[in-house]
Amino acid sequence: MAASPHSPNSTFRRLRGQHSPAEFAALVRRAAKEIGETVSCDARYIGRVESGEIRCPNYAYERVFLHMFPGRALADLGFAPREAVRGRSAQREPDPDPFFPLTPSKESDVLRRAFMAGGSATVAAATLSLTLLGDTRRFPARAGESEAAAVEDAVRQIRLLDDRHGADALYRRAAEPLRTAYALLDAGATRQSTEDRLHAGAGELAVSVGWLAHDSGRFDDARSHYAEALATARVSGDAGLEAHAFSNMAFLARDCGRSREAVRAAQAGRRAARSLGSPRLLSLLALREAGGWAGLSDRKACEEALTRAHTEFSRGPAGADPEWMSFFGEAELESLESRCWAALGEHARAARHARRAADLQDPHFARNVALYTAELAGDLARAGAPDEAAWAGGRVLDLLDEVHSTRIRAMLSETARTLIPHQRSPRVGAFLTRHASA
Fold first, then answer.
1. What is the DSSP letter of 217?
2. Could you give the CA distance from residue 392 to residue 375 in angstroms, rounded to a whole number?
3. What does the CA dihedral 362, 430, 407, 119 come to, rounded to 10 degrees?
């Protein structure tokens, strides 16, 4: 039976089964890819469906859901008829943007579309331009629910595009929505609940833009954005945002060679996350700490942190897992452990973990597939397996037609330099030639 306007969609919840919302969202994205659709499904979208907020999906999601559950109609999935939701004939209703399942008002729709630009691999998050709301070219006197939703959707879209294409094409264009988000926050909100959403959304947007700077090699910019997110978290008392900011700060410190700072930031993140009820978040922070200890060549402390990471990860997903952690699964755990062993000089052991990471990664996350494979290539080169390293490096070059990441290209260049003494090998020689031309 279809869900009523204000009742939860218990049918859809039963269909999700034992999967967490984030895990089920990954299954939706995978199903979409199988049939050539593009949807930005995440844990929040699944929550909106199950709460009854989304009474009927847009046409893209409809095709995906019917592909996932063959032989069923939308009503069998707990949805209301489209004409009952839209108040008009389904045949006359234009297909909405697949990134945004339902747009409750013209204002909300304009804000969302003003934040984003859809399309090809080079298209990125665009400017939030409130001028589209009218000719006044001014912000609203007080931010409302539509503005808060637009900020949240900007975060989601940036993460989606980064997963697929990497940071290089995104960073500079994503900075303008961040400035606008903080301008909205400064203008104040109509309700305290809206202001809380704006604080959280602006902080998460700062982390996301910081990550784009980080991944594209702009470390000073990344540090500034992460600090901005941390300050926002402290002002609003948002422990989840604080833990996220510290997690990324630890990662950045490790990449900058400041290993002790990485340890301290990860430990600060763990203190912030203790009360949140998310073992997966504690696992990630333990891995960040392990990376810092590895950079300090403290094998014992690194192994202790890795043990904590695996223990927390084994507790499984939880409803309190943050939405931004959708990337963190077994593949990412293997990758982060691989980096620890590489930092400790155990490259063969690192290669085993990197290989598992690449094999386990959902193809939807194209950037991560490229990253893990680049790690594998580097580990193999240093472990004395040049032909295998060249093969892995060739796979990364294939992916770099779609993924634009300075960090991954730098890793591959380092692997190429390591392989130069083996260039007489036909496979290594072919890789080096191809890399040089790329």
1. T
2. 9
3. -60
**Given the structure tokens 């430990």, which residue do they identify?**
267
> What's the pTM?
0.68
Dist CA 184 CA 309 (whole Å): 38
CA distance 277 to 299: 29
* pLDDT tens, position by position, 314-365: 999 898 999 888 889 999 999 999 999 999 999 999 999 999 999 998 776 7
Q: Which residue has the tokens 């400041």?
A: 258
Residues 353-377, buried b or exposed e (16+ Cβ, 10 A)?
A: bbbbbbeebbeebbbbbbbbbbbbb
Burial class (CB in 10 A: 0-12, 13-18, 19+), 234: middle
Q: How far is CA 30 from the centre of its chain?
A: 15
In whole angstroms, give the CA distance from residue 292 to residue 161. Answer: 29
Contact 86, 38 (CB under 8 A): no
Q: Is the pLDDT assigned to residue 97 strictly greater than 50?
A: no
CA dihedral 64, 42, 117, 170 (to 10 degrees): -130
Query: How far is the C-alpha of 330 from the C-alpha of 314, rounded, in Å?
Result: 10
Rg of the chain taking only CA atoms, in angstroms: 23
163: pLDDT confidence band, cut at 50, 70 and 90? low
For residue 120 the two structure tokens come to: 């090809």
- Which of 417, 397, 420 lies closest to 409, judged by CA? 397
Tokens 């298209």 identify what position?
123
Sign (positive or negative) of CA dihedral 206, 223, 379, 294: negative
| Residue 436 token pair | 């040089």
257/275 Cα distance (integer angstroms): 30
Give, as one character, the DSSP assignment of residue 346.
-
Q: Which residue, among 61, 49, 50, has the nearest Cα to 99 in the 3D structure?
A: 61
Return the amino acid letter for 382: R
Residue 430, number of CB atoms within 10 A of its CB: 14
User: Is the pLDDT reported for residue 46 higher than 80?
Assistant: yes
**What letter represents residue 265's amino acid?**
A
Residue 229 CA: distances (Å) to CA of 104, 240, 314, 324, 381? 29, 11, 29, 14, 38
Q: Phi first, then psi: what are they for 189, rounded to 5°?
A: -125, 160
